[in-house]
Amino acid sequence: MALLLVTLGGEAWRHFVAITSIASAFLVTNNALLVRFFSPSSLAAFNWDQYVDNASAFSDFRYALLIAFSTLFFAEGISVITGKKSFLFAKLKAISAMSARGVLPSLAYLGIVSVTGGLLDFTVTKMITDWKLAIESHVFLGLSWLSLYHIMLVVVFESVAFIVVFFSWKNFSQSVGLLILLTSLNVAASGLALVIFNLLDGAPILATTPIYLAGSLVISERFFLTFVVLTCGLGILYLAEIRWSVLLVPKALRRAFQAVR
Q1: pLDDT digits (tens, 9 = 90+) for 86-124
Q2: Strands 210-214, 217-220: pairing kind
Q3: Are residues 66 and 154 in the same domain?
Q4: Which residues lie below 8 Å from residue 186, measured CB to CB, with a gap of 6+?
Q5: pTM (predicted TM-score)
Q6: Do 216 and 138 have their domain in common?
Q7: How far apart are CA 151 and CA 232, in angstroms?
């Protein structure tokens, strides 16, 4: 498709550059900086590729990049099919137009939630004297005390986001966009809170220590940090598209009720 677009002018050229750039970035990331191409003829290249792909600190980060590039390629392809402007160039233009003053409130919110969450996590974990009871107990709906604590954190900080949106006195569309932004920042703050917790605890930042999130869901700290940052980034990048989808739900329900009547 990219080779066909290069024969056209105007917006098609931007689509070509965007698709080519995203596809090339995906290729380089997926093939470990293209070292994988040399693995059939070099044992050292094969071993290095296996290490980066599975055991190194960059393996989770690599998979996160692959997901990000995949979503960008899909979005750019949709913009080509629908005849709209280049998705990638439109996002880059919007990012370049952002001012430091406009970003400062979001960074302040992110910092406050991250520091609060990290300090709260550090304080609570230091108060736990029986980790077996905290992890293996069945208090409510089969959840342990530690699972309930993590769920409580999500509820508390998401409630803060709803309160901020409520007192922002914006219209419904703007309120939905602000809620999506704050929710994305809350997701990123959970990862930064983990970094703050490890710094206070004197532990490595990117460790493979397991985290007992909720129920039987257990993941490594490195995986958690990588993918919460990825989720936040995608949430902010696709904020307008997510808001459009959310606003589409009430309209669809209204039409469905009208059709039933």
Answers
A1: 888 888 888 888 887 878 988 999 999 999 999 998 898
A2: antiparallel
A3: no
A4: 113, 154, 157, 158, 161
A5: 0.80
A6: yes
A7: 19
